[in-house]
Specification:
This protein has 314 residues and is an all-alpha fold. The protein has two domains: 194 residues, no CATH class; 95 residues, no CATH class. 60% of the residues lie in helices and 1% in strands. It contains 13 helices and two strands; from the N terminus they run H-H-H-H-H-H-H-H-H-E-H-H-H-E-H. The protein has a two-stranded parallel sheet. The protein is globular.
Length: 314
């Protein structure tokens, strides 16, 4: 007698149980938007929505580095779902983040390096401008990557185009239903999330050392072990349990395929003591208030660049 198929093998399976938090965010954001679309604007729910748009960006980031599901079908459905929620195709992380940022680690070849735009800065104006500057230089990267994909992998190219089609169709339908509600409850939150997604690069890397410098020079600048890990800033506060350990950036760069839940252990056991102390911050919000607000008035609150003083910034 033939054995019945194992139903558990046919059910979608998460790669890691901690991604139930990711699924909760992916469900909560559209639910809050739909509730307010029907019942009207609520300031507390809207504020929660804006926070969740940050979470969607981090989930997108994590899903690219380590696919959330064990099955291909569920991973592709998640790609499309994130595309709908984020208001931009998920494929863009491959050319912009994996093939560029993780490859060059804020170095001279990283097209969106923070010190490319107006010098090596770390202030409020630079933070606000960085997403727009980054988009400007990343768009050619997207187009070149898509052109190569169309030539060499037409199936993958069609998959990317399907994401564009789904995103634009969703905007068209929602704007046709009620353009005011579509702007307020969908498009503005999506743009808010995308701004933070790009601005995070500035928070994590501005005034960090992205250059390849000699060991002795690194030690003089604060890299006490000459380890070459001073290219990123880490945040150790509440941002991590709320936003999937996005603040532990060195551990992530050094272990890009590790699940986000593993980064706390990696940060404390392998990397925290090996980076310059000024790059291990506490909370994200206190850091932004100190550097961007107080630093605008009192120089003692400003951060100090770890870039070699005689390096050419371009």
């Amino acid at each position: 007698m033939a054995r019945p198929p194992d139903v558990r093998r046919r059910l979608p399976r998460l790669r890691h149980w901690r991604d139930w938090q990711s699924l909760a965010y992916l469900v909560a954001l559209p639910a809050l938007a739909a509730w307010q679309w029907v019942h009207g604007f609520n300031v507390l729910l809207y504020a929660l929505m804006l926070f969740l748009t940050l979470g969607i960006g981090v989930i997108h980031h994590n899903h690219v580095h380590l696919r959330m599901w064990r099955g291909r079908r569920m991973n592709r459905l998640t790609d499309f779902w994130i595309t709908l929620l984020q208001g931009h195709p998920t494929f863009v992380f491959w050319p912009a983040h994996v093939a560029n940022h993780h490859r060059y680690r804020h170095g001279p070849k990283d097209v969106a390096r923070t010190y490319r735009f107006g010098g090596d800065t770390n202030h409020l104006w630079g933070y606000l401008l960085h997403p727009f500057q980054a988009v400007w230089v990343l768009m050619p990267v997207f187009f070149d990557w898509l052109a190569r994909l169309r030539k060499h992998q037409p199936g993958a190219w069609r998959y990317c185009m399907a994401q564009y089609a789904l995103w634009l169709a969703s905007w068209a339908v929602l704007l046709a239903l009620d353009w005011r509600k579509a702007l307020l409850f969908v498009i503005v939150p999506q743009l808010h999330g995308l701004h933070w997604l790009l601005a995070t690069n500035y928070l994590q890397h501005a005034h960090a050392d992205g250059r390849k410098t000699p060991r002795k020079e690194k030690e003089a600048l604060g890299d006490t072990h000459g380890s070459g890990l001073n290219y990123a800033r880490n945040f150790e506060g509440l941002v991590n349990p709320l936003l999937f350990n996005i603040g532990l950036h060195t551990a992530h760069h050094e272990n890009p395929h590790a699940h986000w839940s593993e980064l706390t252990h990696l940060h404390h056991t392998r990397y925290r003591a090996r980076v310059a102390p000024v790059l291990n911050e506490g909370g994200l919000v206190p850091y932004m208030l100190r550097v961007f607000v107080l630093g605008a008035v009192w120089p003692r609150f400003r951060s100090r660049s770890l870039m070699p003083p005689d390096s050419s910034i371009h």
